[in-house]
Amino acid sequence: MKKPIFLLLLLVLISLISCKEKVTEPEAVGPVPSQRQLAWQDLEYYGFVHFNMNTFTDMEWGEGGESPKNFNPTNLDTRQWAKTAKDAGMKGIILTAKHHDGFCLWPTETTEHSVKNSPWKNGEGDVVKELAEACKEFGLKFGVYLSPWDRNHPEYAREEYVKVFHKQLEELLTNYGPVFEVWFDGANGGTGYYGGANENRKIDDATYYEWDKVTKIVRELQPEAVIFSGGNPDVRWVGNEHGFAAETNWSPFTPGSGNLQNGDDDGTHWIPAEADVSIRPGWYYHAREDHQVKTLPHLLDIYYKSVGRNASLLLNLPVDTRGLVHENDVEQLMKLRKQLDKDFAENLVEDANVVASSEAGSHYSAQKTINGDTKAYWMPQKETIKSNITIEFDELQEVNRFVVQEYIALGQRVKSFTLEGKINGEWKEIASETTIGYKRILRFDPVEVSALRLNITDAKARPLISNIEAYKAPLMMEAPEIVQHKDGLISIESYDKNLELYYTLNAEEPNKDSKRYSEEFLLQDPTRVIAVAYNPGTNSYSEVSNIRLDIPKKDWKVLNENDDAGKIIDADENSVWTKQGKLPQEVIVDLGKTYNLKGFTYLPQQSRWPQGVIADYEFMLSENGKQWKQVSEGEFSNIKNNPIEQLIEFKTTKARYFKFIGQRSADDTEVLGIAEIGVITE
């Protein structure tokens, strides 16, 4: 009889254990993403290509009356675009198939304003087709941008155009294979060519385009595609064109709330943020911006403040008039890829021990957060909000990156959390943040820890954490920046403050045996400063920065203008002075004392929309401010397409005053514009 009793007790025990282990899947909290939104979120980083009529007219917004004959790339190669995107780590490309000027990059049946009437390939070309095929070849997703506004079409703002717009959408979603995103711009209505009417036309963008029908077309023809903007969006604009999401970023969003950057913690719809930004100041290619491609530190900040803040990154590549991604852009893209590969090279938690404050059964154990499967997740016991996960290392680890993800299929939950590190046996706070969402990446100074602890301090419901990672990203070995301030003080800075900086003032290349930079220092005379960043941990050096600095501008004065003109001698290239009026226009500067001058420098405005870039100039000198001698005149060669600092030398002349005269601007406007002006002394 003992054996049957034993078996009975064993079955009861197993039943009790099973009951304890059986946990019902948690209910969703708030709005949740669709399958297409989940697939889109996994892409994280993809490219925008602005290439169209504006590329050839050197504009950002064409007016609509441009001739199709303008469109004629000399070496269009969509495979180069796709390869560049693939090598950069992007997962897809969205193409501006039609911008506001109405020119279509495919041979549409809806208008004559398209590639079919351009000289490119004798009108037989189709940019959309070529890029779709290139994306397929390189394993990239393909998306289309279609401007609702059409400044060319004669029927825009009337009922007939809406049918044209819908037909264009149908063509793009029918003839080019799978589409992952359909992008509708928010710019709608205004002045335009409109078939020769050249007038201002306004529409109600909420009703005019019949967004419900647009949505139906997309859902029927490309059910896996997400819709950006428009009347029924799956994805929202992040609220700026800098590529930065807010530190608090909810994917739930209530249309019309206006909270584009932050989203709404009580939002009615799941509409996550997409951060769009161009690698240059403009969206379309302009030769004048070849020197203004974003630097590696800038691009890295964009990545961490978009992908690292629960947004997807849409980085624009302005394809040039050849039909290629410019080599300067490619260079910076590859630098970013290389740095990201370094930052996330070794996940330190893969072999760590994971312990949670509580677990809702083995199916929801904390171990799920480091198994690489984002479909599995840790969940604490029922009704538990405040909870934590501890990552215990076998040996001390130096950490400066922390990645955490929520299981967003059941909603975004976490409202606030902290990260602690166990340092010398004591828990110390590393970071205190708000939302997590699909992905949150924290950057902080390196800390040596024996353990990390993620503390969920507030949430809508018990948290569901699907992934945790930790890394030791290497220090970024970029050449340091040397800055001369107006008072003559010199500062040297590196992107990573944990690097050591060394410099020389004797034209020799610096190393760790040179003078170490610790604080600003004063230079009164012309001096060549050479600086380098050094990583003692790897015994490696950055590239050097080498710059000749001239006399400080501390005692300089602009004589013939108001105080605002002082911006041209404040040693800050971001402050700009413009003088309206018929050219020529002049400005006079008193250097404070007499110098032997042998040249001058002129820096035009460095913004996206520069004003008063001077093409023809005259430069004059005086010892007393009364008698003037011309020492140089001429043209700043190619300054319209290359508006970098201009350096002009002349025969050494003794002077205390200089007069700069703008004779003609590069864009033939009646404006004198100066960001900074300086002299070269002997």
TrEMBL record:
Residues 337-473, 527-679 form the F5/8 type C domain. Belongs to the glycosyl hydrolase 29 family. The keyword Hydrolase applies. SMART domains: Alpha_L_fucos. Keywords: Glycosidase, Hydrolase, Signal. InterPro entries: FA58C, Galactose-bd-like_sf, GH, GH29D-like_dom, Glyco_hydro_29, Glyco_hydro_29_N. This is alpha-L-fucosidase. GO terms for cellular component: lysosome. Its EC number is 3.2.1.51. Pfam families: Alpha_L_fucos, CHB_HEX_C_1, F5_F8_type_C. GO terms for biological process: fucose metabolic process; glycoside catabolic process. The keyword Transmembrane does not apply. It comes from the Bacteria. One of its GO terms (molecular function) is alpha-L-fucosidase activity.
